[in-house]
Amino acid sequence: MIAIDTRATSKQIEEEEVDPEVPYTEIIPEQPEAMRDVTIIASVFVVESLKDAKTKVAIYRKSGELLRDVNFPAIGSAFGFRGDATDTETYYSFSSYVLPPTIYKYDMLTGESEQIRQAKVDFDPDKYELTQVFYPSKDGTKIPMFIAHKKGLELDGNNPALLYGYGGFNIPITPSFSISRLAWMEMGGVFAVANLRGGGEYGEEWHKAGTKLNKQNVFDDFIAAAEWLIEKKYTKSKKLAIQGGSNGGLLVGACMTQRPDLFGACLPAVGVMDMLRFHKFTAGRYWTDDYGSSDNEDEFMALLAYSPYHNAKAETCYPPTLISTADTDDRVVPGHSFKFAAAVQHAQSCENPILIRIETKAGHGSGKPTTKVIEELADLWAFLVEVLEVEIAKK
Asked: Which of the residues 149, 310, 336, 364 is marked catalytic?
């Protein structure tokens, strides 16, 4: 909702009899989509929203009348739309999983976009495609998922696939361009992103549906995404890897302990793995709004039910797993990954490798030097190529 402050001064109230109980005038009512930002450019409102985890930008007159929607070239994410009330043009960047960042100039008067510049990447976007599907979770809730791959993909169940998720802290996962993910698709892989409950894709209700006593919904959503990809023959269990970092590392850890039969490889990074003691270390105490706390009896039982460290069961065959952490991570302390790796290694009943990669002189991820990023990604992709038996396709 967009509202304008119309509060009057005490003198105006006395002289003009303005009602002080009606301090705001609604201009644009609440929308089905989650509004993310509002700017005034060319004396109109530019309203940025998320529509099924994709960017939607609408232009409204100051009266609240819808003037037009901004047309984007494809499924993706847009950033920008800044300016002054007197400007007649603005700029934005647009990208997706198969489209590198591209800068456009937008004419506020005509509604036309003009491409100004595109990042130079050695690949042909026209050879790749990005689609969005909606699949049912365990309780019937419709969950959106993006799927990117080379055009002409044969749905025979034999494609290597990488499924990514996060599902937490009201953070939306929107389409973005990544060289490393492009490398995966160049090798013939399918890349999928499930927009799980707990994130910010649909506002606060969606977020709360994946927190505290409802956290299992997030894992159910992710497991259902894997099952959907297998059912539709994008891949099969032995060819399907799951990936996530931080809260997403928890996601991968919980799903692999709940459904070890479903995945061909797991890549949990800097994950929160001990859900009974996470709040006792560094920034962990700030996460109780999403996770709850083991100090609360009801939340203790919910946390124990899915805590990856506590649910590594003996005599279980876990999928090949490469756990990633860093020795000086002061957000999710590396002890989470150390304990989880030890627990799964101890429980492992088959020959599938359970490995841990510990980066030195690094933290949670932000600010990591490019050389370390490349080295880590090379290890991750090499691991998947080996354990998923990927036959590398020609570029």
From this structure: 364
Note if the pTM is more than 0.85. Answer: yes
Give tens-digit pLDDT for 17-51.
Answer: 445 566 678 889 888 888 999 999 999 999 999 99
List 246, 293, 307, 324, catalytic entry: 246
> Active site includes 364?
yes
| Number of neighbours of residue 32 by Cβ within 10 angstroms | 8
- Per-residue pLDDT, 13: 39
The helix or strand, by DSSP H or E, that contains position 9, with its residue range, turns out to be none
Instruction: Specify the CATH class of 125-387 in words.
Output: alpha beta
231 CB-contact burial (10 Å; exposed 0-12 / middle 13-18 / buried 19+): exposed
How far apart are the C-alpha atoms of 267 and 337, rounded to whole Å? 12
Q: Give the C-alpha distances (Å, rounded to integers) separating 132 from 11, 101, 170, 173.
A: 56, 19, 21, 13
Name the residue ranges covered by the structural domains of the chain.
31-118, 125-387
Instruction: Kindly state the DSSP code that residue 81 receives in the 8-state scheme.
Output: -
Say if CB 271 and CB 249 are below 8 A apart: yes
Active site residue 293: no
User: pLDDT tens for residues 89-135?
Assistant: 999 999 999 999 999 999 999 999 999 999 999 999 999 999 999 99
User: Which two tokens mark 207?
Assistant: 């977020």
